Every structure is written in C-alpha cells, then in structure tokens.
Amino acid sequence: SRQSPTGAHPTRRRKIMSNQVPFKSWLDLCVTPDGKSNSNGGSQPSHAHGSSDEVAMRLRKEARLHFEALSSSYSEVAAGVDLPSSPSKTSSVSQDISKASSTTPNGALAHLVSSLGPAFSPAANIDAKERALHCLMGSLEGCNNLTHGVRQAVGRFLVELCRPESGDNASDGEDNGDDVMDQPMDYVDAGNLTSEQVTQQLESMVQQKRSADKRSSKVTSTLAHDDARDAALVGLTASLHSHLELFPTQQSLDISQSPLTEAMGVVYQSMELRLELAMLGLRYRCQTEKSDPSNGDEMWGGAGAGYETTNPALNIEDGLSQLPRLKRSLCFNLLEGALDGLREDDLKLNNLQSQLQLQSHSSTQDASQCRPSSLLKSMSSFTSLVSSCMHGETDPRCILQLLHLLNKIQQTMLPIYGQNSNISSERVTEMDIDTLEVTFPSIEIFDAVAPYYPVQFTPPKNDPHGITRGMLQDALMAVLCEKGASYKSQITALQKDDGGHVEEKETMVILAGQMFLERLEPPKSLEYDPPSDGSESDTEDKVDAIQDLSSLLLQQPLSSQNGDSGVLGGKNALNVTRATPAFFSSLSSSLARVHETAVSSDKKSLASAIRKFSSSVAYALEPDTSSSKSTAPLWEAYVVDLLRHLTPALGSAPQGMHGRASTALFASMAAEGGLMTLNKVIDGCYPRFLGVLSLLDENDKCKETDEGESSPKSRMSTQKTRDEEKMAAAMRGIAALISSCRVALQKWQRDNEGVQLHPHPLRNYIASAIDKISIVLSESGVEHEVGSLSLAAIGALESVLTSADLSILEERDMASLEKSFSLMSCTALGGDGATVDDSSKRHEWKMACARVLGAVISVGLRQDKGTSNATTSSCGRMNNFARSLLPEVLASATSPLQGGPNLRITRYDWMVLAGACANSTSHVNEQIVSELLSSIMAELRTSGTDHRAAAMALSYVVHHGGPNVGTAFHSLSCPGPTPNDLLEALCKPLKRGPFEDSMVREKEVVTRQLQVGMSALQLPVSRAMDEEVANDAMRRAYSFLPFLIPVYECPSSISSCNNLVEFVDPIMPPLSEWDELKLCVGLPLLAAILNSSSQVYRLLESATLKTLRSMITYLAQFSISSDHDTHSRSAAASCLFSVVFHSNGDDERDGNVIQNLLKKVVSPALTNALDCLSKEVTDAATPRASGCLIETSKQSMQSTFSRVEDALSFLGLLGSAAACKGGPFSQTSDKIVSFLIRLACTGASQFPFSETTLQLVIPSEMEQKHPLLHTSSHAYILPASAFGSMLSVHNGGPFWRQRLTHKTLPVLLKALQSQAKSPDPPAMGTLTVVCHMICCLPVSLLGESNVKQILPTLIAGLVYFSKNTDVLTRTEMTSSKPTDLLSIILAALVKILRTSPEDVTKFVRIIIPSLLLLCSPTEPCERYIPKQLIVLQCLEIIAAHPQARNSMLREKDQVVAVLSAVVDHPSLIVRNAVVQARNVWYTLE
Q1: E strands along 632-783, which residues?
Q2: Which range, 350-364, 749-763, 835-849, has the best average confidence (pLDDT)?
Q3: pLDDT > 70: what percent of the chain?
Q4: Closest CA to 597 of 654, 652, 520, 686
Q5: Is pLDDT above 60 for 759?
Q6: Longest dimension (CA), the chain
Q7: How far apart are CA 1015 and CA 1008, in angstroms?
C-alpha cells in the first residue's frame, strides 16, 4: 500500500496532528480582552487572569515548549521513513510551503501564522497584537530549523510589523508636544466673577480635561505600539538565528541523493535573505511616523531572490539615536542573529561544496567556490549598515556590543570574500566583473571605530555593569586588528583604477597602522595631545601606541597562538603581509625618528619598546622558504630602506645623537631580527665604522714619520687631529654589532637544535676589527693614556673574544692580540691587585682589562678538550696563552694584600676569575674552583699571618661568576680536594703536637655511645692547653666561615646537604672540645643550605629528611644550653626552625614535636633559670662584705640573666615556627604567645601545655619608681623581647600576625589600664610589648583606636628614658636590654611619625624636649651613637609635622641651640646628622 501524503505512519500522523489543538486556544487568549480563553468545545487552557504582560509571557513559553516537542517528534518520524527509490529532481523555494505538511514544524509555523491572523487585523487592539507576537516569538525560539520559504514568509510578515504606526494615530500624535503646555487648570478663581461666568469656566475645564485624557490615551497607544514593534524585532531575531533546513519534504529527504547544485542555490538565497531581513527590520524599527513611506510594496523584490530596497537614501542614524539604550541593544541583537545564521549557512555551503567535489571527482571547483556578486553586495551593505550604527554612539554598553559585532562580521565575512580570491588566474577574466569589483568595506568600519581610539573611558564609581577601559580597548583593537579573521591578504588590497587595472588600496591594517603612527609621531600640522585626564604621560602614551602596533602587525593566527616563536608575533604573523611596502618604509622611518627623540630625552622605556618592536617586525618580515608567498619586498622596504637612510650618519658622525641612536637601533635589529637582517645590518654598518677607524692607520703612519724626524711639534699636531670621540663611537658601534651577532647566533642554535651557522657572519670583518683594536690598545699601554677610545676598544675586544669565530685569525692577528693581553695582564695583576688612589677612569680601565682576561681564559680553555677548533693554529695559540695565564691569575688572587686584609677593597684578579667562570664551560669552572679550594686548604695548614685571600676569592667568584661556580664546587670529587676535605681541614688544630694521636683518633667513626674502659682513656698534657688549642682552631674557623657560607647558600649546595648532615649527626650532642669545633663549622654551613631556598626540602633524600627530624631534640638542647658557643647555638636554632617549619612528618600533624620540646627541653631550662634569677636578685639585695664577692655576684647575675633570656628566646622561636606553619600548630603558637604576654605584663603565667605557673621577681615599690636601676624590672623585658622576635619572622602566610594580634591586644590593654593609675614610670614589660607591636605590625592591623590607647605608654617611656640617660651610658649594668629598649622606643616613634603623625600631634611639646635630652647625653660613649642617630632622625622628621607648625616655631630656638652644642661630637657620622637636622630646623619659617 502507498504511504500517506505526509510520508508518516497514520498513527504517528494522528499523534503529531494532536499537537495542532492549542492554536485556536492561543488565538482566543490573544484576542480576549481579559486574557481568558473562550473557545467552544474542547478543554480550555488553565490560564489565570492577569495582566497583558503576564499573558504574553505565558503564551511565549507555551509556544516554545510546543514547538520544541513538535521538532523532536518530527525528527523521530523522519528517522523511520522509507525513502523512495527515485529522488525528486526539483527542490525549489516555491515548493517548500506548498509541499510541507502541516504536521512538520515548518508547516505548523505557517499554520500558526495564518491562525493568528485575526490578532493582527486592523480591528484588533494593540494588546492582542502584542500577545500574538509573543506567541509567534516563542514558536520561532522552539523551531531550530526553518526552510528558506517559511523564513521568507514569516520574516516578511515580521518585518512589516516593525514599521511605525501610520494613519490618524500618527497625525494626532504630532500635536502631543504642543498640547502639553495647554494643560487644564484644576481650579476656578471666582473672585469678581458672576455665576454665569463661573459656570462657563467650569464647563471649559471639563472640556479640556476630556481632550487631555484623549491625548494621553493616544500617547499610551503609541508606546504600546512600540512595544509590539520590539516584540516583532525579537521574533525576527529568532527566525534569522535559526538553522536552514534544506530538504524538509519526503521527496527530497535523503541528502545523499538530493540535487546539490540546486541546494547550494537555496543556501545562497538564504544567506541573502537573512541579511536583507535584518537590514529592513532595523531600518523600519528606527523609522518614525514622519519618515514612514506611504507604500511599502516597492520595498520588496520577487520571492526567492531576497529583498532589495529601492530607497537607498533611507538612513537609520537619526532614528537609532532617538531610541533608548535597551531598544538599541535589541536592534544590535537582530544584526547579530542574522550574522550567526549567515555563519551557519556558510558552513552548510562548504559541506555541500565538498560533497559536490567528491561526486565530480575534481580537486578544485572554481565555479562552485565563487560567491555570487549579489551575496557579496548584500554582505557589503550589511557591514556598512552596522558601521553606521557606531556613529554618535556614547553608551559604553552599546559601544562594546557593536565592537564585538563588527569583529564577528570580520571573522565571518572576510573568509567568504577570500574564497573568491582563491581562484586561478585564468578564471579572473572569466568571472563576472561585478564579483571582482565588490570588496569588503573595511574603510567604512575603520571610519566608524577610529573616533574611539585611543579609549579614554573611566568607569564611574560603583559601576554595576562592570565595563572597564581595558574591555573597550580590547574590543576596539580586535576590530582594528581584524582579530580571528583568516583570509587571503590580497582580497582587500586590490581595486581597479579608472583604466581598469588592478592596483593596491588601503586596508584595515594600513589604516589602523597609520592611525597608531600618528599617535606615536603626531604630524606637525596636527595638534595632538596625549590623554587629557592625566592618567598617562606622553612617554606612556607613545609606549601604548607601540603596543598597539605590535598587536596589529604581530598577532599570530589562531592555529599558532600556543606556540613560542621567540619574538613577538614570529614568522606566523598574518597582518604583516596585509600591508604594503610603502607602509613599512614609512613605519621604519617613523620608528627611527621617535627612537632618536627618546634616546636624546632619556626616555628609556620608550626607546626599549621601539627597539624590541622594530626587531620583531624585521623577524616577522624575513622571507621564509616554507611560505607560499614571499615577504621579500616588505622586508626590503622595512630594513634595506632604513639602512640606506641612516647608515651615512654612521660614517660621518657616529658620536652624534643621530649616530648613537641609529647604532642602538641597528644593534637591536641585528640581535633579534633574524639572520638576513643580521647580515644586512653588518654589511651596511660595519664598513662605515671601519672607515671611521681608518684614521688610526693614517695617524700611525704619521707617527712613524714623526719619530724619524724627531719632531715633537709635529706629533702634537697629529695628536690634535685625531677625533678620539668619533673613533670611540665607531669602536662602540663595532662592539655592539659583535655582541648582537652573538645573541643572534645563540637564538639560531636554540631554534635549530644546536646547529652552528657557517660561515660566520663576521668572517669578513673580524680581522680588520682586531687590527684597529690592537693599535689603540698598544698606544694606551705604552703611553698610559686612558680615554674614551681606549675604553671603547677594550670593550670591543671583549665582544670579539666572546662572540667571533677566532679560528679564522691569522698569525699576525694572534700576535697583536697576545701583545695586548700581556699589557692587560700587567695592568690588572700588577702591584697589589687593588684600587688604591686610582682615578675613576683608571679604575674603569682596570676593570675592563680584568673582563678581557677573564674572556681570554674562558675562550682559550674552552678548546682544551680536543675539539675541532683546537686544531687550528689560532685556537691553539689562544689555548696555550690561557693555560699560561690562569696560574698567574690564581697566584695573584690567592696572595694576601700587603696592607693587610680589607673586606671592602676591589681585587681585579678576582674579577678575572669571575669573568672566566661566567663565560666558560663547567670544565673550566671545576678547574678554577679546585685550584681555589686547594689554596684554601694550603692556607689552613699554615699559621701566623692572615691567609684568607683564597677564601675571599672563592666567595667573590661565587657571587659574580654565575650559577655554575657553586655547581662546580659541590660536585668536586677525589682525587682532588672536596668540600668534605675542607670541613676536615677547618676542624684541625693549628699545630700538630702532642695531640697528633688524638686527632688521628678523631677521624674514626664517632657514635652516640660514650666509650669507656682503660683503652679509651686519654690523658692530655693539660686540660687548659687542650681548650686553648680548640679555641684557637675555632677562632680560625670563624675567620673563614663568612667567606664559605655564600658557597653553601647557592642552589646547587643541596648536593652537599647529605654530607653535612652525616657530618653533624654523629656528634650531636658534643662529647668533647673537638666535637664543639666540628659543630661550630658544620652547623652554620648546614643552616645556610637549609635556609637558602624553599625547594631544599623537596629535593632532599628521604633518609636525609628522616635524619634531620631525628636531630630536632638534640638541636633544641644544644641551642638552649649556655655551655656551648654562641654562634653555633644560633646556627643550631636556625636549623631547628627550618626543619620544624618545612618538615611534614607523621609525628608533627598534631603539633607533638613542639609540645614535646616545650615539656622536655624548654620547661626545665626556663624553670631552673627563673629560680636561679630569683635567688640572685634576692642575694643582690643583701649587703656584700668585700668587692671580690660583689664582682663575683655580678658575673653570676649576668650569667643567670642570659640563661633566662636564652630560654625565652628559644620559646619565641618555637612559637614563631608554629605560627608560620599554621594549621593545628596555630593553637600551640597561641598558647606560647599568651604565656609570653602575660609574663611580660603581669609577671606570672601558666606554661604552655602544663599546669606549672612561672613567675618573675616582683619589683618592690621603690624599684618600680626607678626600674632602670634594678634587675628585677629588667627581667620583664625578656618575655616581651621574645614576643617581638616572633613578630619579626618573615615566613608563613599573611594572616598569622593578625591572629597573634587578636590574642595579644586584650591582655595588653587590660594591663595598660591597670598601670595607668600608678604615678610610676611605665613597666618595662608592657612598654617593650607596645614598642614591638608598633614596629612590627601595620597600623591598619592594630586599629586606630588601639593605637591611641597604647601611644601614651610609648611617650611616657620616651620621657622616662630621656631623664635617665646617665644610667644608659653606664658600663656596670647587668644587661643591655634597657639600652636596647631605648632603640625600640625610638624606632616605634619614627614609624608613628612617618605613618600617622596626626596621632602624636598633642604630644609634640613633650616629645621635642625629650629628644633634645636624648641627643645630648652627659657622658657620651661609642655604644650610644646608634641611639643618637635615631634621635636626630626623629627631630628631622618631626620638624615637618603638618599639624603642629606653631609648636615647631616655638621650639625652634631651643632645638637649634641644643643641636649647635652637639656639632662638636667626636663621631663624624653624628656630626653630619646633627648638621642636617640643624639645617632643617634653622630653615623653619
């Protein structure tokens, strides 16, 4: 049996037909005034009564859901249809509507439009029309696929609805504005009126009221009609955004058997239709009643051919500007919807073309790929229309939307235009002449967006839209740079002249580039000003122009944006090929001029940006053999023309500003512009520089003649004729070109997997350069003349050695070089190798000689391993000279100075070694470091005079010789000296006498078990002698350690960490004086490694980490014990902090490690020390019988006080480690800081994780009145200082200080409130806590109110200390803590004066007298000088207090008088500070 006409099963057909039921109910809902359906029969939809807007939204939602279900059902039906044996031979547009069944989504949509016809009739009200439009809008949103015919019919219908209201309503509305002034009055003045007159006026008022109501209803009707137009516009947007369904009927359902050529024609018509509908919809929506044509039928063309307007004068700009921002945005959405549909059609068209090529078995189909001229014209008109929308737009939201739309147009349409250019040359003459003449309107786009450049938008405060200047700038640059558009570069660069010939025209790239150039170099006739808002300077504005040029020309295509080309844009940049040679010639000239101006005005950022950009453009333009299109003409216009224009100045006046700027620009282009640019620059510039240096040959001949005639007068005239500055500039230019060559070759090797370039670019010039350099250096060495030419020549020689290929040199060249090297060796290594009363030029000359000698060693020894270059005679001679020079340099570098050690002196022999290591291979580094290490060990075996020169040389080489020096040191192995041998040598005694057997035994493995027995006993000659020898060895080790620690701070020192841990671990805890010595050496070096980088613990071996964690307890006991050396204890504490902070062991997750240390190490030590201190303080109050006992008691007091200080400081270290580590350790740090604060403020506190309460000695009432004199008050400073040490740590996250402050402030403020009632001076503990918090914490963290509460304590402490300066200068004080407290008080005052001076305004008249007392103590001493300097700094700062000017003027005479008396201070630094402060006060007015 035959199938039904719909091609579906009858059951399925009935199921789909049941979906047509809502159409009648939707119509009833639209035309019913109250929004309720009144359809007879069937069930009514369950709509509740509501406003017109609510009903419209419900209809839209129902329609969308209905058509979405209908589309999915039709897809299922179409999937099960049996296709006919023979396909249809026709699939025209006219058949789409007639043959489409009403059960298909397209047929249902056509049926819906006809069903809703009564709602659009003239008799229907505006609400019915708006509801019907919303219903149609929802159906279009639910239909994702529309046929061309349905879209044409529906689109034409919606476009007509976008027209403005016409007829009587329009004419009535014309007088609305005039009637506004004739509003009826709401009262009648009955004074002096008869009753008839009053009645007459009342009737007139009623008549005016009726007229006003009528006009108001007409205005409301007009606004409602505009809403209907907007709804039609949104529906039209949905229809244009939907996909194209080519074969909706059963007869042509099989795409594989469909007529592809006719289908492509349908796609072309669909593309034109989308654009024409969008343009007409926008134009009609922007029309007003006055501009509406009386008849719109002439606006339409024939069906199937798209719509063409016959009124090109129709302009939308005026109407668009009158629309609100939201309605303008709807218009732009319509354009974007059409553009999205166009993109989908183009993808479908490309798919059909591919199928057609497969069927015809042809690789190219020019005819199919060529787009018709009508489509290109439509796209051009569409683009012009969108561009016109930009004119006069001021809202940033609409500007951003339009810029994104224009860039999307470029991405979509430019490839379509490009397909027409992808045809053979034979086809150009066969094509339609109109197709060739239609071009993309890039100029119109540029004209539309150019007024917005540069973007100067500043968003308002609290902007809810979030549009920034950067967003607008990026969108604008995307349009100007045609970002994302991939097309043939010639499609927009061709146009026909009057004679019919194809010629180049301006493109978007050229136009945008010229605009950017005008910003970079404004024409003299153009009065250009940088941004007027003051946000950018002229230099920054020009740098932005360079960045915009870079974005324009050097952007990469989408396929290569993830790659790294090495320079901006790279050789894959597309826009550089879219410009003309004339543009690049103009670009290079402008860049050169602006660069010269920037160099002359010292605008380094602008000059650097220009050089980088210029080099990148040259690299991008360099012709590539792999590219189908050569960029040689562009490269020649950019590089060759610039060389031709600028190089003459290099030969005539290289020392001038023009010559120097040109040299710098060419050097940069040679380094980064590619090999062709490098060779061209060298060939263009090098002969010019050599021509300038040819004066040396002439002068040399004149000199030989003068020597023969012995005419001094002639020699003087010859010397005057030499233009030294000119030749020095030429020599510097040669050096710059040689260095650029080295950079370019390194880049070449990096990009070509290490392949070296042959022949060398400098092959033809290097010999001439060496000849000129040798002449200059020989004269400088003989005549001892050091000028600009000599310095330039030696710099050029350094560049030659490090960059050129020396294998091409001849014997004569090498002989002259060796002669110059010998002269430099005498200069840099002669005498004591240091700068002593040398002038700046001599110093610069010696430094240059040292750098050259370092380069000689590195280059010469580089050929020492049997390389191919070593076989040539020149390289062999260089190697021999370097091998003979290195021992001489090492001997000079390791020899002590004649005047004794001086850490600040400059050693040129050290510079030679550093330069040799910086430029050489690892083999040379190992050789130099091994020799230095051997010298250090030889110095350790000697005794007597100071022999630290080798260690100082090693430290200098590590600092200045590059990272390979540290790697070479830590990778040394046997049979040469190793770092382990250095450790052993540092731990040996100065003399090997009776202790030889003992030291041999020290080399045995030491375990933690103390050996017992008669065989293990050792009876030294004298215990005191043993300790003395160990102390001497320790002092010698400490003299070497400052120069060895930098070697262990380099990143490569991690390889030595394992050996150091193995060295330290067996001797913890130390059992003898020699163990102490080893720890004094090993612990500082281990601390240097552990604290060098946060990456150390990620690279260490697991066994080493486990050993470090096992050493935690021993390190803690060693650090807190006073029986060991102070420096080694400090290093052990540093190691402990690093291990605890970085370690992630399982036993630390709950903070058990720190808690165990608190219980087992800190608590016993602190308890014992506090008990001893209490006993010492009590005994000190008892009268002594003799002076000897008093002296003994003082020493005991100091020792006990130090023990308490050490225990509390170690507690602060554990607390800071816990605070920085965070997490579960935060609670541990909270308990530690609470203990320290309470102990400092109250004198008693409970020890963390313990029930024990520790207490300081409570001062008596007399001691509280003068706390500086009594040790009991000094003890309160110790816990406060430990708290300050916690705040001073820089590790950890950003919030742990905030947490500690939150825990601390309540306790501190409570103590300050209780102490404020006492007339005594502030307690030492609370005063110290206040000062540390002010110094270490920002004011914002403390809070302004809290600062004001703690500030009086600071001022009171300042006053108290100023009245007792005599106590601070005494030498018999038990502790230095009170003196240190004064430094902290002054530091806190400096910070307050700098950060918040308004808080101390009311204390100014108290602060100034106190500072004057502090700056002039009664008994000045050397250790008080740092305090005086801080006091003078406070006086200088407070003189500029903005809110206490009157107080300053009242105190001026007194301050000047006191400072004048201090001018005669013995210390020079104090005198200078006094003079500076006095001048500030003296000039106050």
Answers
A1: none
A2: 749-763
A3: 74
A4: 520
A5: yes
A6: 147
A7: 18
Strand, helix or coil at 1253? strand
Least trusted range by pLDDT, from 176-180, 445-449, 467-471: 176-180
pLDDT of 779 reads: 74
**Site of tokens 């078995």:** 361
Angstrom CA distances, 706 to 661, 712, 1105, stand at 38, 8, 77
Kind and range of the H or E element at 1163?
Answer: helix 1163-1180
For residues 407 and 414, what is the distance between their CA atoms, to the nearest angstrom? Answer: 10
Alpha helix positions (H), 116-259: 126-142, 148-161, 168-173, 176-179, 195-241
- Residues 797-826 as b or e (16 or more Cβ within 10 Å = b): bbbbbbbbbbbbbeeebbebbbebbebbbe
Q: 322 with 288: CB under 8 angstroms?
A: yes
Residues 146 and 245 sit within 8 Å (Cβ to Cβ): yes
Phi, psi for 1245 (deg, rounded to 5): -165, 155
Which pTM value belongs to this model?
Answer: 0.74
Q: Which of 581, 761, 611 is nearest to 672 (CA)?
A: 611
- How does pLDDT run across 652-665, given as a tens digit for each residue? 888 889 999 999 99
The average pLDDT across 486-490 equals 62
Print burial letters for 1259-1268: b (CB count within 10 Å at least 16), e (below 16).
beeebbeebb
The per-residue pLDDT for 560 is 40
Name 75's Cβ contacts closer than 8 Å, sequence gap at least 6.
none
Tokens encoding 906? 């400059």
Q: How far apart are CA 196 and CA 188, in angstroms?
A: 13
pLDDT of res. 875: 77
Per-residue pLDDT at 624 exceeds 90:
no
Pairing of strands 243-244, 145-146: parallel
285-294 pLDDT tens trace: 887 765 554 4
Q: Are the C-beta atoms of residues 1211 and 1239 closer than 8 Å to each other?
A: no
Q: What share of the chain is helix, strand, coil (3-state, %, to 5)?
A: 70, 0, 30
Rounded Cα gap, residues 773 and 796, in angstroms: 7
**DSSP string over 992-1052:** -STTHHHHHHHTSPP-SSPP-SGGG----S-HHHHHHHHHHHHHHHHHHHHHHHHHHSSGG
Task: Please name the amino acid found at residue 9.
Answer: H
DSSP 1158: I
Residue corresponding to tokens 């009623």: 206
Tokens of 269: 């018509």
Query: What's the CA gap between 573 and 554, in Å, rounded?
Result: 5
CA 581 to chain centre: 36
